[in-house]
User: What shape does this take?
Amino acid sequence: MKLFNKTFAIFCLAGIATSTVFAQQQPEKCGYNHAVEFLNQQYSNYKQELDAAYLQKVQLANNKQTINDKSIYIIPVVFHVVWNSSKPEENLHDSVLIEQINVLNEDFRRLNADTSNMRPGFAPLVGDGQIEFQLACKDPNGNPTNGIVRVSTSATFGGGFLPDMASIAKIQNASQGGSDAWNTSEYLNIWVGDINGGSATPSLLGVATPPPGLSNWPANSVPPELTDGAIIHYSAFGRNNPEAMPGIVVNGRTVTHEVGHYLGVRHTAENTFGGLFGSICGDDDGLTDTPNCDQSQQGCNATRNSCTDTIPGVGDLPDMVENYMDYSDQDCQNSFTIGQINIMRSVLQNERNGLLTSPALTNCTVGIEENLSENQVAVYPNPSNGIVTVDVKNQENATVIFFNIMGQSVQPMLIGNQQYQLDDKGIYFVTVQTTKANITKKVVVQ
Assistant: This one.
């Protein structure tokens, strides 16, 4: 595989969309070129220094090939839900935020059900990232929190044919109608809101910052408008989002993709126009275990093999539409490669090691399944015909709340000891609240 000939993306605008939604105008998916050119004008040799920094991580990852360190790294998360006071639908329910955490944990631990869709040739190359996510239980002042900040605002963010980063970045500042970041060295801050200026057909789904302070990176390597973290358009967030963007699959993978950038991984191909101006093989991420391709795909073409390369021990493989860092449709993404995992774990051991020693998860008393073991709460049968048992063991004064897929609370009929009857088919979320913890589980009524 040829080494990349473009620099590591400063930030990625992950517009994973289909022509059905944007029939009149195909949106620009990534603002990488604009950011690099802008910063290269301000900082001499910016591109050259950026390449050198990323190359160090790539060489380490390519030489490693296996994940030797088996420790589980846990990242504390705070969600900033910034919603326009005239559009309450932007104020996404807790159940949507909780489910997004579940998606991250499934994807980064390779516990997602769609791993079965991986083509056999890629099986030796992918793995469990051994990275997990929890909503913070302590705020920066040491006070208890559920890890969710909600801000009602009259401000608008973003919009326009080309992304206006100065406008989008306002969502990260309380003085401009947004929400201030919590200590970025100790929390993964994720802002959720309308970052397309109210447009009915948004072209921008997400933006994330890479690790600051990488070796050999020039000062101010992140665009000065942006605070460290990720920003996600509210309709591209979660997988049980009642406001999900029409025309595309919204299953939480926009956040998975952006968190990959936050942890130092770049696109499998930086050139999004390959094929339009001829094949540009070698314009990739530099990792030996991600197949070389001339562009990140729009769609889910499993037969396309745009570039020939030789992956150690495997040989030539087609373009990897299964990769979370591709531009393929979200419903065909299901994996990180071992090389990508090694980069992310190296970043957590070094540039982002403050996340691993953060007090945000110290002595947590409220969380998502972290204080209730699997044998303490059971929801069954699943799938159900409408009669659901919520078995809560060894917990006094437990409260059981049901939510539908729109995040609305529902009141099923209690028909027996811990038995509930749900009349409508669909997906439900069962939250069990105790004095020690909260746990949320999903159940399907057929």
The CA atoms of residues 15 and 29 lie 5 Å apart. The longest strand covers residues 73-84. The two ends are 48 Å apart (CA to CA). The longest helix spans residues 46-64.
